[in-house]
Amino acid sequence: MTSPLTPTPPAAEPIDPIAEWLARRPHLILDGALATELERRGADLRDALWSARLLIEQPELIRAVHLDYFRAGADVATSASYQATFEGFARRGLDAEAAAALMRRSVELAQEARAQWLRERPGDDRRPAPLVAASVGPYGAMKADGSEYRGDYGLDEAALMAFHRPRLEVLKAAGADLMACETLPCLAEARALARLMDELGLRGWISFSCRDGGHTSQGEPIGDCAGALAPFASVVAIGVNCTAPQHIASLVRAIRARTERPVLVYPNAGEVWDAQAKVWRAGPECAHRAFDAQAMDWSEAGARLIGGCCRTSPADIAALWRRWAQQG
Question: Which UniProt keywords apply (predicted)?
């Protein structure tokens, strides 16, 4: 029996699942879009909750999309919690307990899909068990006004930490392998989340939305942002998502120049959202290059975690998996 005078052993350092994976393989394949894939399958996401709406109405469809990404070759499923916040659910009349239950459910759905894939995969499949990343969308996602692509919230880091803390605590308790802090428009929010993950003993990635080949959506140099995250042990990868694919290689090089952390990218498919007509239109990268071919450029620039965001699909992830499988 431990004496009252025996010092309490220090808590074990949280595992870095990205480092463990990349120690064995050159790349980690992320999944693709969730919300636009749900829409492609008939879901109506015209709601401030966006994909989180289906946590209430059609959770089985979310699970099915996760499973199809695993079957396609994804090594990570990102949960449907991007727009799942206490504030957003409160506007739908849900109290804090119900909101927390839905956030936990978002992680459970991905975990259930992983369990199903593990049951059905061939006995000789050498792919390690996939990871489940809990999506942590930016403050602007809760506002549902597009400000995750602008920044300039008018909030300091302390206020952003106060906003994100309750959700991070719930997602930690849900048992996700890591946090996916994504589509962040500015360094202030990235630092707020990194500070919280350090404080809560979490591991996760930080991924920015970017306006061009060198700057976040708010206009900060992406290299400076990567350098500013160096002190945070919780940040296990740094990168870019929900950004036009033609900007990705340049952004990767700028990030790599300022950090030793693995770089992740999951850009949009190349289409452009027409907010007035509310439709997707072909962009400059859609007509002549397949998504997996573009991904080779991002890999050559130094990205080691690669997947897709809006308008990408399980077919895109399967093509990427086949290409890397052929390379051995």
Answer: Metal-binding, Methyltransferase, Transferase, Zinc
